Amino acid sequence: ALIHAADPEVRETIKRTVQPYFVLKGNICALLAAKDHVNLFLYDGGIVPDPEGIITAGHNNKTARTISFRREDAINATALTAMIKRIVANNRAGGWRKIKQR
Are the beta carbons of 55 and 67 closer than 8 angstroms? Predict the structure, then answer.
């Protein structure tokens, strides 16, 4: 519900036969289950600000970032929604490759 709250046009799909993806004019994010946590893989997460420091991995990747959630973790909905909105805006503008060329 949090991803859809960022933009009601976001659609869910399954890719790689098992992984839920959220898409709108390109990939936004994917949910990747692990034994004791869930990773939210943010496409283009590397080009959006993270002033709240919610990114937990992928800092060395050129574009993608990850946020890990454990059952007991509180979700910073405000920060996450802002990131999703920014990624959607980037997708609508042609994605990071097109933005980088400008």
Answer: yes
In the chain, the amino acid numbered 84 is: I
Domain layout of the chain by residue ranges? 2-101
Q: Is the dihedral of CA 2, 66, 62, 12 positive or negative?
A: negative
Contact 65, 42 (CB under 8 A): yes
For the record, the structure tokens of 89 come out as 């805006």
CATH class of the structural domain 2-101? alpha beta
Give the tens place of pLDDT for each residue, 1-35.
Answer: 799 999 999 999 999 888 999 999 999 999 999 99
Diameter over CA atoms, the chain: 42
Q: What is the pTM of this model?
A: 0.88
